[in-house]
Amino acid sequence: MATLNFDELAALIECNSHSKNKLGIDQHGEQMIELLAPLGFSLTRYQREHIGDHLLFHTPKIEGRKILLLGHLDTVFPKDTFTAFNQDELWVYGPGVCDMKGGNFVALNALRQLRTQFGPLHNIDFLLVSDEETGSDDSKHLTSELAKNYDACLVFEAAGKNHEVVIGRKGIATFEIEITGKAAHAGNHYSEGIDANFALANMLLEMTSLTNLKRGSTVNVGKIQGGIGANTISPHASMVVEARFSSLEEQNRLLQGIENICFAIEITGVEISIHGGLQRGVMAPTKEQQILLDDIAKILGSPLSTEQRGGVSDANVVASMGIPTLDGFGPFGDGDHTRDERALKSSFALRIEQVSKILAAWCFDTYEYAPSPSVTDDALAQ
Fold this sequence. Notes:
By secondary structure, this protein is an alpha+beta fold. The protein has two domains: about 5-170 and about 285-365, Zn peptidases (Aminopeptidase, 3-Layer(aba) Sandwich); about 170-280, Alpha-Beta Plaits (2-Layer Sandwich). It contains ten helices and 18 strands. The chain has helices at about 5-15, 20-35, 100-120, 140-145, 195-210, 250-265, 285-300, 315-320, 345-365, 375-380; strands at about 40-45, 55-60, 65-70, 85, 90-95, 125-130, 150-155, 165-170, 170-180, 185, 220-225, 230-235, 235-245, 270-280, 305-310, 325, 335, 340-345. The strands form five sheets. It has a six-stranded mixed sheet, with helices on both faces. The chain has a four-stranded antiparallel sheet with strand order 4-5-18-17. The chain has a four-stranded antiparallel sheet with strand order 11-13-9-14, with helices on one face. The longest helix has 20 residues, at about 345-365. About 45% of the residues are buried.
């Protein structure tokens, strides 16, 4: 493989693509279009007014498995905060070098290697969304619909420290809850008031009690507001609640539990308004995913190391559609979402080589696909 041109990565990094910078995201999207067009990709642009456009790069479809590569264009750093790219002997530094412009760079170079070796590509599509860092509130609907067209998905978030790929991620739900009570003078008309703050306090305790660490489930009331002053029964209060869960069973338990608490508290006379809900469903290991891992182990000659993470990504979205999904195919890096973000240079070459071999086997029959019949649901449970 030719030596990587990190100057090319630098140009991608130095184009600010903060989630709320539509102009910058679209400029970064044009960079990716320019890089992928010579590889034979066609483009479908999903134009958006207030956020960056989502981009689907696609190749001709023939008989055989269809593969989706998935990444995002946006980063968490606003303009004029953290924009510089740097490198030394071992590391590259800058906004997005591991989350996840570096991952997209891995995918780009794996596709280049594939095109050089085999000629025109087919059955491989590459989706780049623009709002992952803010929860994929817009793109998750698009991703869910597109996912139905593929037999497997590779996601290019950062690799683990030992180049683990991600087989599981917690799901997440977020709620904004408004509580409306009735104001009254705290001294003269105490009994005539309906205390929104008191209702909130009881809800906070009940929601937090839904946490079950042994099951990997947490409920966090991360922000509360309420009341007017010490001499007034509070007429309003609000809370922001986040739930995270590691299984579909726990996802259903927590969502139902939060809903039940809200309905139950209304008997005190307050009114409850709920906004939000499930943001990304849980990504849990499955039998089909294990078959995919076994296939990759045969292609590469050894199994990939795996891990599960508490954070979410767009892998959750695809996995929730029942598509065998693996995440973490980007380079190893750390410091993401901080000014210390960096990625290990050597991990780029490793990941590019691995992804190239996987795609070559799937799309050009360099390896005869033979799912292992030994994988069972019982084995996964061990």
